[in-house]
Amino acid sequence: MSRSPEFPPVGYAEWRRRVKLELGDAGFDDALTTRLLEGITTQPLYHERPATTRLGRKAVDNSLGWHLCPRYETADPNDANRQIRADLDGGATALWLRLDEAARLGVDPLVADGGTRVGRDGLPAYSTADLETTLAGVHLDALPILLDAGGNALPAAMSLLALGDRFEVDRRTVEWHCNMDPLAALAADGELPGSCEDLASEMHQLTSFCDAILPRSTAIAVSDLPYHQAGADAADELGIVGATLLTYLRWLGDDGLEPSVAVSRVLLRVAVDQDLFASVAKIRAARLLWRKVLTAVGLLASPPALIHAVGSDRPLTVRDPWVNMLRTTSQGLAAALGGADFATLPSYDRTLGPPSEAGRRLARNTQSILGEESALGQVEDPGAGSFYIEQLTDALARRAWSCLREIESQGGMLAVVRSGWLRERLASRWAARTSDLAHRRTAITGVSEYVNLHERPPSRDRHSSLDLRERALERARMRGNSSTEPPSLEQAGSLDRFSAGSRWAAAGATLAEISAALQREPSPTADLLPRHRDAEAFEALRDAAEARETAPTVYLERLGTGREHKARATFAANLFAAGGVAVAEADDFAASGAAVACLCGSDDAYAREGASRVATLRGAGANRILIAGRRESLDDPKAVDDEIYLGCDALAILGELFQ
């Protein structure tokens, strides 16, 4: 005899009917759905199985399931080597060397803009000798090395190959990722080491060399980092990645290289932030877009995308930086659940200057816990089967494809970077995000919400960037230039050119000398994309408050009983603290020393005694009076100067208070 279920199944239609009864006048969409900045609406319940696709990744032979890949961009190769040794002892399985602006542009560090490019946004490694200093004690064939020189990847790869040959590493086994990404470099640096035509030819040569000589290595990176930092949302970032990939495949095809050869030499680099599910979906959607683009160029069977997930600096804060540990943990979890092949997490104190040893160690151990203690890397596709993640993945991929098509309609990636179209689009995306941040619809814990005005940032001893730059310039002066006659690199074939360049690098040639020997045409230029952080506007207010001789305060005029005023007084104090404004501790306004007062109470209390309290405050010298709640609660709404409420423009109000 079967028993009837205690809770009979309820279909989605019946669930919607009952929800509507509970909500009453409130609309379903207004009450229970959330619209993301990407234009995607998230539902409260996912009930339909989406068309799932297995999104595998390349097998990584280590206990994590992905490569733990710290980034090195200190302005001193010796410091970088110390960091590398500590990271390898602490579990790192790959290394990401980000070269500085002088190296990325292939210019002589001693003459370029008075040395101001030295150490800027990267490692001043200008020769094989500098790379040897950086990688001293590292087995070059034992782990992947990501060498990031932007558009100047060919000379940098020649120098790395020269170092490998010096130590007789087996070219067939090394895994080096040369990261040639001229379009992202143009967006980030505003110029390139040569013309796009020259760099397209060099991309062909580097790709051909990797295919023939370095079978486990890649030549090309397609990165969304500069666009993400400029304010792009996830859909636009993926659309830009797809459009950039399409552009590079066209360049290589025009130069005679088959797409089937090129795609196995590409690495995708995507930013992940503290929005866990959106970041998981973003990595998975990147794989869908990869397949879509390759299908569009005629590759029906393609290798899986190789993805490097990079924890974003955009959500990191200077204020209350310890909360950054939680943000980077979300980034690492997203990389693991999304199935990234490489993962780089920033240190929690990255926003304060060069990361501390403790910060780097915590960033490593976060990934170790996720991979080794939680075993997240042992699952092929953890997001598969979740209706929410699957549908969010599909929606992101579709919107990204729409963005890609829009970029194509504008003439392609190079055109939109040079024309300013992309800059304007990203500015509009950042304006939308800024509005959410200003109205505190998107909270920044420790900065716009739950602020500790008495915090003391961590202190540490570190060299100034100016000191590090001077040390780098001194090393360049002592090294000088190569005395070896430069080979003829301009007319040589792809393999001969690469081999000749690496031999010259082994003889002491610098990246600037190799770049000059390539005889490139002048570089295109573009406006630099800005670099934003979510907390920057609120932190500017905090800085302004602390720069004043007298700390700014506001007096809370509490009306009615504690039960009537507590909620709004707490809300008001939290909002003012976001701008560095403290609540005056005094029994009355006259004794507080404040110039600004804020009424805090219930609507009934405002109606009972709001007018008299405003008059008393004016008489005591208050030059600005606000109300926590809506001013319509007063008999005379114009009696107060402004109102603060849930969803108000906190940045605008705090800015006016400072003025």
Description of the structure:
The protein is 46% helix and 10% strand. It is of the alpha/beta class and 659 residues long. Among the domains are: 13-42, no CATH class; 536-658, 3-Layer(aba) Sandwich (Rossmann fold). The strands form three sheets. It has a nine-stranded parallel beta sheet with strand order 3-11-10-9-8-7-6-5-4. Strand 6, helix 6 (153-166) and strand 7 form a beta-alpha-beta unit. The N and C termini lie far apart (78 Å). The model has no long low-confidence stretch (mean pLDDT 90).
What labels would you give this structure?
single chain; 659 residues; alpha/beta; Rossmann fold; nine-stranded parallel beta sheet; five-stranded parallel beta sheet; 25 helices; 16 strands; 46% helix
How do the strands and helices of this protein lay out in sequence?
Elements (H helix, E strand, L loop, with lengths): L11 H12 L4 H5 L1 E2 L5 E2 L24 E2 L2 E2 L4 H13 L5 E4 L2 H5 L22 H7 L10 E4 L4 H14 L9 E5 L1 H8 L6 H18 L4 E6 L1 H5 L4 H21 L4 H4 L3 E7 L3 H21 L10 E5 L12 H15 L3 E3 L12 H17 L13 H23 L3 H7 L1 H18 L26 H15 L14 H13 L4 H7 L18 H12 L5 E6 L3 H16 L4 E2 L5 H4 L3 E5 L2 H17 L4 E5 L13 E3 L5 H9 L1
Parallel strand pairs: 3-11, 4-5, 5-6, 6-7, 7-8, 8-9, 9-10, 10-11, 12-13, 12-14, 14-15, 15-16
Antiparallel strand pairs: 1-2
Helix pairs in contact: 3-5, 5-6, 6-19, 8-19, 10-12, 10-15, 12-13, 12-15, 13-14, 21-25
Summarize this entry quickly.
This protein is α/β, with parallel strands linked by helices and 659 residues long. The chain is built from 25 helices and 16 strands. Among the domains are: 30 residues, no CATH class; 123 residues, 3-Layer(aba) Sandwich (Rossmann fold).
